[in-house]
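Inputs:
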Amino acid sequence: MSLIEVINVSKHFGGLAAIRDVSFEIKTGEILGLIGPNGAGKTTLFNVVNGFYSPTKGEVSFKGKRISNLQPHEICKLGIARTFQVVKPLQRMSVLDNVVASAFLRAKNKSDAVQIASETLNFTGLYDDKNVISKGLPLGKRKKLEIARALATKPEVLLLDESFAGLNHSELNDSIEIIKKIKERGITIMIIEHHMKVIMAISDRIVVINYGEKIAEGTSQEIRNNPLVIEAYLGETKSA
Amino acid sequence: MKKYLPLIILAILSVLPLIGLSSYMMHILILVIMWSAIGMAWNLLGGYCGQVSFGHAAYFGVGAYTSGILYYKLGISPWWGMPLSVVVVTLFSLLLGYIVLRLRGPFFALATLAMGEVMRVTFENVGGLTGGTLGILIQKRTWVSKFGYYYIILFVAAGTFFLIKKLIESKLGYYFVAIREDQDAAESLGINTTLYKTIALCLSGALTGIAGAFYTNYMGYIDPHVVFALHDISIVTIMIVMVGGVATYWGPLVGAIIMVFLAELIRSIPGLGAAHQTLFGILLIVIIIFLPNGIVGDFNKIKRVFKRETPRNELN
Amino acid sequence: MISLEGFLQTLIAGLLLGGLYALIGIGMTLIMGVMKIINLAHGELMMVAMYIAFWMFELFKIDPYISVFIAVPVMFFLGIALQKFLINPVLKVDSILPENQVILTVGIGMVLANLATIFFKSDYRSTPVNYATSAWYLSDYWKSTPLDLSLSVPWTVSFLFAVFITVSLWFFLSKTDMGKSIRATAQDLDAALIMGVNVKLMRIVTFGIGAGLVGAAGCLFIPIYYLYPSLGGQFTLIAFVITILGGLGSTVGAIIGGLILGVFESMTATYIGMGWAPVGRFVIFVAALIFLPGGVASLLRKQRFGK
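Outputs:
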């Protein structure tokens, strides 16, 4: 059952086509990986799904209804949350306050929001840092905070943009565990990632983008052996 | 103890006139309190929500003229302008916000500056309605003594303080700060940034407008050159909050005390009066470079400077 | 009744004015484009240059057009000093409000305008050169002309000077290494850094150039305008309108923006009335910010990509 459908989406900036006629679906409950060389258009695609850009052509639908003309906050209210590649903590707020701010979306009042926020921090292992001003967090925890904040909006779909970039070995394993727990909760995930090992390990299916076009789609086995994909990555290290 | 600080300060301020102050001192205090109200209003939009307005005189002036026009054209007591200005200035803010809130950062700042000046020139040229450059003079002052005025503006300022405190601690406060820290992230978290920026602007404008309406009643004379003034209202407002401390509850009061007393000090020293803009300009530059979060905001920095001057026990 | 002669004369006046305006705008668009700095003291810098030209004329009988060669270097170094000692430190400071830098320039402008008032009084000044009211008449050269058009001497000379400076600047920016480095810094700071451009130096130099340009504009203006300490504000506004209208960082845009503004003001002055100029400027400013945020430059870019 497809939860999100991306239908013939193109996005042009001036004369430049960042995304060209891309179509795929995200099935309920799956983890869909989105990979491709740098500059392929992955984050642009997220921005289209999330509502920051409206597609030049084509449309995006969520549970059968068209969402490509909605504002990002409306899309979040419908149940699609995202994290950003370059993390955007609310710098001068504490870790807890960061998540309380997003928890207000579903909370009935402030104490409810604090409750949701605390649970989410617990879930992502950040509870001990709840009073730290987020500006002072190391990168690994900031990435977790991004995820926690998105989770507090109680999404059905979570769009993760390079949540593993720059993490060390133990942080990586930590984050992978969190992703698995999120999937167990029934949340559908789409994840952009460069870490091949990670993506291959956790994704149910993978979509590959290059130069703004979809060049392959399938299981990690199928993708690994796809000549087009290998060619696209020629020159890039295969191990991560 | 800290929890009761606002009530303590309010109590002190309420009792102050009763100890017998000169009319001049009362005037100074009234100015301080009025400016702290305006500063707090600006702080809501600028300090907490991050939209730096260079044209707050627009709201002040519209509020002032609400009172003024009621008197001038309809013969109604200008005191009615104070409650009415809430409605008028809110509607005006909605219109202004619709135009300028789509702009971000420095462009928002510039657009608000432009709008403040547009209001000034417009009011200067629509003489039939506003009295034009001749302004509006209120023939009979309500009171000779300053008592009444003092308590009215104290009520307004206290109300502003407690309202803002309540707001910032609520969902609205979180949303405002989220927008300030990262508008795109806030949008993605389900925050309707346009709506909340508009709310911040209208609240900020309305609170400033009430001060403007008060000003008409207190001073008894207004003209566009004064109430829509770029340097003497809009920039002074920014200075008050920057000197005192952006995004703090007490910053505007601290800033208002310093700025009003400083202005009076400069005015009283012969020869120095002409240089008051230079001194203000230098103060602004110094604050921006060394204490960008103001006295309250950068209080730790100030403490550190003084601590370094006393010898420290290294062995502890 | 709109006569053709009147219309053409107004148009010519507008273009001459526009050329001078463009010079003011180019300085600002460079500063905003390269350093992303909003300089609300731009007009005050022009005022300073005008006072230099005034006193050179008053004390030493030096013609304002010669003063260009004096004022420009002075303003250049003043600009560099302001950038190095005041603006750069502020850019490094961490504060809640990102608009600190704008507020700083407001402070600088206040100090400059007030100091001028203290030292020079608010009296209106001018440099009554002997060619101030001379003009070249078309009828002097073409005896049977159907329309008698005239070019005011100081306006025209100032305009030609402005054109010369603008062309020189264009050469500098496109042909010299330093000019290219400046443009690189404007386009992409990080890329420029990686390519070995001394970005810090470029930014300081750019502010100096911007100040120098507006200084030249001041000297070119004083033969045709009155000088008083608080005239800075309106010229800052003019610079902004041109910058936004033309497109941030685009010198071509600033030229076109300046000409548009000049013609617009000339037309409104002739056909509507003098008092409306400031309102007109503000309205264009806000309208441009909202409807054409990329300025004329973005229209030109679209043309090039054929979209």
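Remarks. Chain A touches chain B through 28 residues (CB under 8 Å). Residues 169-184 of chain A form the longest helix (16 residues).
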